[in-house]
Amino acid sequence: MTTAAVGRLVGYSVQQVRDLERLEVIPRAERAANGYRSYDDRHVTALRAYRAIAAAIGPVPARRMFPALVAGTVDDAAEAIDDLHAGIARDRSDVRQALRGLEAVLADPTDESDERDVMAIGELAEALGVRPSALRHWEDQGLVHPARTGASRRYDVRAIAEARLVSVLRAGGYGIPQIARVLGQWRTDGLTAEATALLQARLADLTRRSIRLLEGAGHVHALLDGRQRATARR
């Protein structure tokens, strides 16, 4: 197959196919006497594997791992894919924990003040499993509002709830602008629908990534199995 033909089969441009070959994401193409590249089914399989795995973990990490993946053994490939699945599983666990944390925040009243509930920065950081510097950063970003007495910070019930919400959404993989918007809605209207929707969307994206990773693993196996069969015939 020509460069254009193999590109059409997998949805890549001629330049993308050439770039991926140069980066050793796919095997080197045979060269005819006139210098034209000649591709076969191996290259199509490798490109499909890369496309699926890039959709699962991102193109830059995929480009970094693929040369070793397609040149290694089936055992090496299986271990690499397992590691990727484990990473997605950890992310999914974090998001589900964040959803449970969100429910816990909503279940606790924030309008009942009790001096016994006030926490120092170190106590709150330990309770949330974050560093005190994270709490100071969230304060600098206007997300959390502790009371200040000189250099000391005191977190009342509402400030603790703010910090818990920030921690929940950070664990779900969200950045400061999205978290600020959710907190604004929560403070003014008591709404947390967007926070829940963000975390549910994150779960759906992780499922999509996991499925693409399964697809890519199948193509990688076909590529390596074909290489082993060709070697055995020699």
UniProtKB/TrEMBL annotation:
Domain of life: Bacteria
Protein name: MerR family transcriptional regulator
Domain HTH merR-type: 1-48, 118-185
Sorted UniProt keywords: DNA-binding, Repressor, Transcription, Transcription regulation
Origin species: Microbacterium salsuginis
Pfam families xref list: MerR_1 (PF13411)
